[in-house]
Specification:
The chain starts with 11 loop residues before the first strand and ends with a helix. The radius of gyration is 21 Å and the shape is globular. The longest helix has 25 residues. The strands form 5 sheets. Strands 1, 2, 6, 7, 8, 9 and 18 form a 7-stranded mixed beta sheet that branches. Strands 12-13-11-14 form a 4-stranded antiparallel beta sheet. The protein is α+β, with helices and mostly antiparallel strands and 435 residues long. The chain is 31% helix and 19% strand.
């Protein structure tokens, strides 16, 4: 996995991006390609963020839902460029049909390296990893600068972009946000990999045998009950002998924004992964020599703070797919009651077209030069499930990065409401969405 020590940080930029996930690095690349002097910083040790740290092996939201088995890109631009890069390098599959959805499967480690390589190509982009945000200097309507733990002096910019799960930049700037609801129906996913098993142990018949042994062991009280939610993922890369195992751990009193809660879940899930590995070696043919090899650095937690913007996307928007004058990209992934289960669909995906994402949903309602992308985008809790997937995050990130450049170059350091449609039209041309 590619990592980097903090790069030299200058005193002033056109655009500053907080967060190194898919939305963050897409926003930073878009900004840099548009000619803006851009800083991307993150407390993480690598590019890829949540998607890399949780060992996510699939890219959803790149293609629109269809019934004719023909993959159609939801967006062009960086999202499509990144998918094609994975496929052409052999580190990702061509789109594979999972139900009515087309998904690209890939190696999480290679995913991180591709993110890093793309960032390294941009001469206008400075990447500072392992860099923590200390404070934000802001008025009621504008952010002036940020203070970073690695630097004594504040860093100024004309536009700021928050792509963090916790909306940390917006929170410290005093912007309004929507807190995480307590949703016990959403499970926390812990995805890890195993190696050393026989090839047929994870094919269709092997997965069936795996499930049967788990059910029997659980009924006899031989395994911790939460292991009953373990699932061997459907696809593994041809050149990668590892198999991905998803372990959805349930529990009460869980807070996605509480570090102690996240740590307890991480420890619990790691123990369950090791328990499952021991059980496989002792009880199931083909797994006698298997071992747990790669464990994520954080749990796959979907909740976050969501910044209050000029427009809030809701479940109704995904049901009716309205035409927005200021649409910048499309969300091709549907809304789920539980995003971890493909069968829990709130709205029939075969009857809906992709949902347009308006520029207004990316601009803070109060702070004119604060934009957002990724999990902290302005949306209802359930609607966030369709917006947070990697393919959509790449598109929204690119759109937000371009909007940040427009903001930085405007005299007001803000996009006036009467110019939103005009700016959105320019962004759509770059993203090639044809909206």
């Amino acid at each position: 996995m590619e990592t980097s020590d903090p790069s030299p940080i200058e005193s002033e930029y056109d655009v500053i991006v907080d967060g190194s996930g898919p939305a963050g690095f897409a926003a930073a690349i878009a900004s840099a390609r548009a000619g803006a002097k851009t800083l991307l910083f993150s407390s993480a040790e690598s590019i890829g963020g949540f998607s890399a740290n949780t060992f996510v092996h699939s890219l959803s939201g790149l293609y629109v839902t269809s019934q004719d088995m023909i993959p159609r890109a939801a967006n062009g631009g960086l999202a499509l460029e990144f998918a094609e890069r994975l496929v052409s390098s052999g580190t990702g599959t061509a789109p594979k049909r999972v139900g009515p959805y087309d998904v690209v499967f890939q190696s999480p480690i290679q995913y991180t390296r591709h993110c890093w390589d793309l960032c390294q190509r941009e001469k206008n982009l400075t990447v500072a990893l392992k860099t923590r945000l200390s404070s934000v200097n802001a008025t009621e309507s504008r952010i002036e600068s940020v203070e970073l733990a690695s630097r004594e002096e504040p860093v100024r910019a004309r536009a700021f972009l928050d792509t963090t799960r916790e909306a940390e930049l917006a929170f410290l700037a005093g912007a309004d946000f929507e807190g995480t609801e307590s949703c016990t129906n959403r499970r926390r996913a812990f995805i890890f990999s195993i190696r050393g098993h026989e090839a047929n142990a994870t094919d269709e018949d092997g997965r069936q045998i795996f499930s049967e042994h788990l059910v029997k062991a659980l009924s006899l009280g031989l395994l911790t009950p939460q292991i009953g939610l373990a699932v061997i993922r459907l696809v593994q890369m041809d050149e990668n002998p590892d198999a991905c195992v998803g372990l959805d751990a349930e529990g009460d009193h869980f807070s996605a924004l509480n570090p102690d809660s996240l740590t307890r879940f991480q420890i619990l899930s790691g123990n369950l992964a090791n328990e499952l590995g021991s059980f496989l070696r002792s009880n199931i043919r083909g797994f006698e020599k298997c071992e747990v090899t790669v464990v994520p650095t954080q749990s796959c937690e979907r909740e976050s703070r969501r910044i209050t913007a000029r427009y809030r996307l809701t479940e109704a928007d995904f049901q009716s797919s309205p035409d927005f004058d200021d649409a910048v990209c499309r969300a091709g992934w549907p809304v789920f009651a539980d995003p971890s289960l493909l069968r829990s669909i709130v709205f029939d995906p075969t009857r809906m077209r992709p949902t347009a994402v308006p520029l207004r949903a990316l601009i803070s309602k109060e702070i004119g030069n604060l934009l957002m992308a990724g999990r902290c985008i302005s949306s209802a809790y359930v609607a966030q499930g369709a917006l947070r997937v990697i393919g959509t995050s790449l598109a929204i990130g690119q759109a937000a990065g371009l909007a940040a450049v427009e903001t930085a170059r405007s005299e007001e350091q803000s996009i006036p409401e009467n110019q939103e449609a005009e700016v959105a039209a320019r962004i759509r041309v770059v993203l090639e969405t044809g909206l």
